[in-house]
């Protein structure tokens, strides 16, 4: 039987006790009761006589609060340790599955000269063996075997990160799914770059990063992949429990985002004086069904009926300057979706009813600070922050910035300025949490936000598109054919996902005229 490594448990001080299976604690008092005695009396925090006399002064209250804070910190540390242990166990399971598969193949007589048919039959036999051992469907067992083979083979770095507790199983599945579409050398590079800061990203944020890397590093141009995929557009009906069903449309990303944007705009256009207990999501679903079935909305709601022909979709596209000019085909970014091909972005920018400059040369461009002259951020500053933040800046929150509030980190009433170094997007829930709880936040250079939890844990969230200003000298273009310096449009560049630095992108939007990046708002009719 193969040796099994010891799990990396790290018990918090005074917060865990091991009891043999079927056994009882030696002391009849609960663990919490004994911990109270240890903290209060043995450590001298509270004089035992005071407690016996029923004294209720500040000392016991302070000791109780300190005890709770210490216990909470221990419990959170134990939870983190248990999570790392679970991840370690999942990595060990993958290693054991691959080891067992190889051993099973040898028992079946599979060798280097075995045919593909014999290898496939041996694998199917092992999948059945594993499924009956774990009491899971063969489909689940087959996925475990396939994942273990990838992790023990080309994706060993991901397996090691899982064993170290740096990534969760959600990160691993996204890595396996996305890298399997690449040639081996490109997949290795994507894995290396993505794992650099994977430990600080939630599984959903990690998946978004992988998708951006995929579009930038894929050997086949995005335009040709899109042309092939668009031929598969369709409508799908999927039954759901309780008399419900899912109706899905598979279509171009910009059209899908426009559909959702228009439905949300129509849902918000209802008569405010008319009682309506439906949520925004329910109103959006009802509006979509009404438009598809009868082509009109509820005539009893005058506001909504009038808005049918008036409300159009508004989508946001971030286009790199050179892509907008047609010099390169670097992907653009569709807000609410992710990377889209440059040709589609240029088409959206060309048909946009309005383009508005957001960032140009730092000496002549839009203002990014209003200081103490205005509480509300102007359109240029708000647009810049929406692009920079991308999402709610609370740790782990994925709510898009366009659905979040723009919050003064240091309150305006306490002297906080209206500028990029004191503003960030927070969803409504976390916007309310910040002033009404023990969470504290401060800005750091580069758009980084440092959060401190009520128990003192420090976490940092990074902007989705950190802008780095470029001086005139460094913004100069590469020499032309004759050796002269070729002029280059001033821009704001962001650190690039590509490790070689060859795919630097300018992340600014809404340009007038459209020689810089553009945030386009194409209208979409009903």
Automatic annotation (TrEMBL):
Presence of the UniProt keyword Hydrolase in the record: yes
Record carries keyword Nuclease: yes
Any GO MF annotation of the entry: endonuclease activity
Record keywords, A-Z: Endonuclease, Hydrolase, Nuclease
InterPro entries hit by this protein: DUF222, HNH, HNH_nuc
Pfam families assigned: DUF222, HNH
HNH nuclease domain residues: 380-432
CDD domains documented for this protein: HNHc
Similarity-based family: Belongs to the Rv1128c/1148c/1588c/1702c/1945/3466 family.
Listed name of the protein: HNH endonuclease
Organism: Agromyces tardus
Taxonomic lineage of the native organism: Bacteria, Bacillati, Actinomycetota, Actinomycetes, Micrococcales
């Amino acid at each position: 039987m193969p040796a099994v490594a010891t799990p990396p448990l790290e018990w918090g001080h005074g917060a865990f006790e091991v009891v043999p299976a079927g056994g009882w604690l030696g002391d009849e008092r609960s663990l919490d009761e004994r911990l109270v005695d240890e903290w209060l009396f043995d450590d001298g925090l509270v004089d035992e006589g005071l407690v016996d006399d029923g004294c209720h002064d500040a000392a016991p209250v302070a000791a109780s609060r300190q005890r709770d804070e210490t216990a909470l910190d221990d419990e959170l540390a134990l939870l983190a340790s248990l999570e790392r242990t679970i991840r370690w166990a999942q990595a060990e399971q993958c290693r054991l599955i691959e080891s067992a598969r190889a051993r099973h193949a040898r028992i079946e007589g599979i060798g280097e000269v075995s045919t593909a048919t014999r290898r496939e039959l041996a694998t199917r036999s092992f999948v059945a063996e594993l499924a009956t051992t774990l009491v899971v469907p063969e489909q689940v067992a087959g996925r475990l075997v396939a994942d273990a083979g990838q992790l023990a083979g080309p994706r060993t770095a991901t397996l090691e990160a899982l064993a170290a507790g740096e990534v969760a199983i959600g990160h691993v599945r996204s890595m396996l799914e996305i890298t399997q579409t690449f040639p081996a050398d490109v997949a290795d590079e994507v894995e290396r770059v993505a794992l650099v800061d994977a430990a600080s990203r939630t599984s959903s944020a990690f998946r978004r990063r992988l998708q951006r890397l995929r579009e930038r590093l894929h050997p086949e141009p995005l335009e040709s992949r899109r042309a092939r995929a668009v031929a598969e557009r369709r409508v799908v009906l999927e039954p759901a429990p309780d008399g419900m069903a899912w109706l899905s449309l598979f279509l171009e990303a910009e059209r899908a985002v426009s559909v959702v944007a228009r439905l949300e705009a129509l849902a918000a256009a209802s008569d405010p004086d008319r009682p309506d207990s439906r949520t925004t999501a329910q109103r959006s679903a009802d509006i979509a069904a009404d438009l598809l079935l009868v082509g009109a909305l509820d005539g009893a709601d005058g506001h909504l009926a009038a808005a049918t022909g008036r409300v159009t979709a508004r989508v946001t596209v971030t286009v790199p300057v050179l892509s907008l000019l047609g010099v390169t085909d670097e992907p653009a970014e569709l807000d609410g979706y992710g990377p889209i091909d440059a040709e589609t972005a240029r088409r959206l920018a060309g048909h946009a009813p309005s383009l508005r400059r957001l960032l140009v040369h730092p000496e002549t461009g839009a203002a990014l600070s209003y200081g103490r002259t205005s509480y509300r951020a102007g359109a240029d500053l708000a647009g810049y922050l929406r692009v920079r933040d991308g999402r709610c800046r609370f740790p782990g929150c994925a709510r898009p910035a366009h659905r979040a509030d723009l919050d003064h980190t240091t309150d305006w009433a306490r002297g906080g300025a209206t500028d990029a170094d004191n503003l960030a997007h927070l969803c409504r829930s976390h916007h309310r949490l910040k002033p009404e709880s023990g969470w504290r936040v401060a800005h750091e250079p580069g758009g980084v936000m440092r959060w401190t939890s009520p128990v003192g844990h420090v976490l940092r969230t990074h902007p989705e598109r950190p802008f780095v200003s470029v001086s005139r000298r460094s913004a100069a273009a590469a020499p032309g054919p004759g050796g002269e310096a070729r002029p280059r449009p001033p821009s704001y560049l962001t650190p690039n996902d590509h490790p070689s630095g060859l795919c630097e992108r300018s992340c600014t939007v809404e340009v007038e005229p459209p020689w810089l990046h553009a945030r386009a708002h194409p209208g979409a009719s009903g």
